[in-house]
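ingest -> validate -> predict -> emit
validate: passed (alphabet ok, no gaps, 114 aa)
predict: started
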Amino acid sequence: QVQLVQSGGGLVQAGGSLRLSCAASGRDFSNYTMAWLRQAPGKEREFVARITRPGGNTYYADSVKGRFTISRDNAKNTVYLQMNSLKPEDTAVYYCNADFGAYWGKGTLVTVSS
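emit:
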């Protein structure tokens, strides 16, 4: 069993930055592909970024490419999402998941004001 505990998020002005963290329990973190998804109000959950295990290949949604960076620290069992140049349309609840959706964090709200 893997538990994912998210932190970070909050309110930021457009153009600002935030970093989300997702800390995993369990000993197999380095074996999991990790991802971030988000769900905006009234919309379906959508893919944001993914980082493979353990080599760290990264993939991004077109809407965040060049602005967001996903990274992982296997020694700390943590995956990060650095979000720069935030836009109001980035407002959403952000979720981390492990192993292609086998495990999910509880979500953290990011609000970007214009």
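The longest strand covers residues 18-24.
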